[in-house]
Structure formats: structure tokens, C-alpha cells
Amino acid sequence: MVQEVPDTQENMEICKKFCGPCPTFKPNDLNTVKPHALFCARGASEKPAAEIEDRGCNCFACPVFHKYELKGGWYCMHSIEGR
Ligand code: SF4
Ligand code: SF4
Predict the structure, then answer these.
(1) How much distance in Å is there from the Cα of 15 to the middle of ligand 1?
(2) If you placed Cys at 40, which of 4, 47, 75, 77 could pair as Cys (CB 3.0 to 4.6 Å)?
């Protein structure tokens, strides 16, 4: 079951190590648009998904992804499914 991810500094620090180097993150300037990162907790980027070029997703390697038994990935584009 998908669990809610807490929007904490601890999770943000983990996220930076995975969303940060993600090939979709920097080229689309997602760091400059709210909520900047931790999309699995905060929801999708305010940049419309149609304007984000998908170059892959690092979420699948992220400890937060596994701890909260997330599915799907690409939360910057699509938020968490099933909410
Ligand atoms: S949510 Fe996934 S696709 Fe989006 S920036 Fe983070 S790792 Fe990349
Ligand atoms: S699962 Fe993705 S959005 Fe969530 S903390 Fe990890 S890298 Fe960031």
C-alpha cells in the first residue's frame, strides 16, 4: 500500500541526492519552480507536465521510494498516483 511521505528536511536531504542528479531535473529547471523537489510528498512541479521533457526518473533508486513503498515514479510530472 502506498504510504504518505512526510515533508521533512530529512526526506528533502535524501531527495536531493536522487532528484538532484536526475536527468529530468536540471535540464527542465525544476529546482527553480515550486515545490523544487520532494515531489512524492509535496506533489508535482508547478511546471506543467507537458512542458517537462522526460529524460528518466531516479526515484526507483531512492530510499524514500522504498521506505514508503511508492509506485510509479516521475512525481515531478504526475504527483503520487492514487491520492
Ligand atoms: S521525481 Fe523522478 S523524474 Fe522527477 S526529478 Fe525526481 S527523480 Fe527525476
Ligand atoms: S522518491 Fe523521488 S521525489 Fe521522492 S524523495 Fe525520492 S527522489 Fe525525491
Answers:
(1) 9
(2) 75
Cβ-Cβ contacts under 8 Å for 16 (sequence gap 6 or more)? 37
pTM metric for this prediction: 0.95
Residue nearest to atom 2 of ligand 2 (CA): 59
How far apart (Å, rounded) are the C-alpha atoms in residues 19 and 9?
15
Tell me the pLDDT tens digit for each residue of 26-51. Answer: 999 999 999 999 999 999 999 999 99
Q: Characterize 44-64 residue by residue with b for buried, 16 or more Cβ atoms within 10 angstroms of its Cβ, and e for exposed.
A: bbebeeeebeeeebbbeebeb
- Report how far apart, in Å, the C-alpha atoms of 33 and of each of 1, 40, 44, 46, 70 are: 30, 15, 10, 6, 23
- Report the nearest atom of ligand 2 relative to the CA of 68: 1
